[in-house]
Inverse folding.
């Protein structure tokens, strides 16, 4: 049997189905690979529904633990990330219902500044002024995204930030591909063109390495 290095979670030559099969046979330590591979994507998707950082991390942890306990139900013809995201969205919506919030959440400017989640990677190529401009641009984009209704915000993040396919988004949201296209189009109209063009979309709502480690450690201790 091939030895899998759990620290090599970015090596996508290691197939998810093989990892899942071996976890189900008792190698639960390999679940860490799936957690680390999906932390960024799951965080961004849940960020489309919830704005409080502690709440988002709690929902992430619950989603991973639920996915692990239900792993035997996972149909391996689909992507694990798609299945996990559906669990995460259901957990987020359940949290919203528990707190009596409206489905279409909005965040005030003060809340956004208080709960800023932008974590920029170190970049030796940028001088201090360029780093400041980049930071401000990303914060403006995050602020603009946060003002979208959840149904538009979640679709925008999944497609434009996480680069999920329209088909996968439709699957996790129980929508038609046509409806996803409509929501995506409307979300772009709602965002100012200048803001949309300036931003490096792949780096908004980043889930830093320290937070990734914390979530992963918690999940692995509790499965």
């Amino acid at each position: 049997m091939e030895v899998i290095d759990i620290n090599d979670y970015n090596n996508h030559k290691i197939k998810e189905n093989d990892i899942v099969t071996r976890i189900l046979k008792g190698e639960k330590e390999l679940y860490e690979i799936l957690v680390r591979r999906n932390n960024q994507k799951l965080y961004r998707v849940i960020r489309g529904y919830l704005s409080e950082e502690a709440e988002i991390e709690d929902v992430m942890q619950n989603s991973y633990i639920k996915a692990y306990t239900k792993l035997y139900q996972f149909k391996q013809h689909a992507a694990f990330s798609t299945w996990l995201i559906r669990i995460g969205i259901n957990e987020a919506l359940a949290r919203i219902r528990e707190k009596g919030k409206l489905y279409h959440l909005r965040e005030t400017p003060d809340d956004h500044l208080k709960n800023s989640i932008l974590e920029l990677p170190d970049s030796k190529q940028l001088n201090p002024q360029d780093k400041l401009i980049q930071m401000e641009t990303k914060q403006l984009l995050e602020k603009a995204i946060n003002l979208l209704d959840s149904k538009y915000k979640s679709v925008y993040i999944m497609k434009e930030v996480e680069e999920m396919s329209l088909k996968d988004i439709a699957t996790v949201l129980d929508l038609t591909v046509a409806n996803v296209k409509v929501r995506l189009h409307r979300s772009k109209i709602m965002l100012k063109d200048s803001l949309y063009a300036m931003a490096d979309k792949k780096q908004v709502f980043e889930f830093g390495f320290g937070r990734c480690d914390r979530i992963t450690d918690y999940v692995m201790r509790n499965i």
Residues 80-98 form the longest helix (19 residues). The chain has eleven helices and no strands. The mean pLDDT is 80.
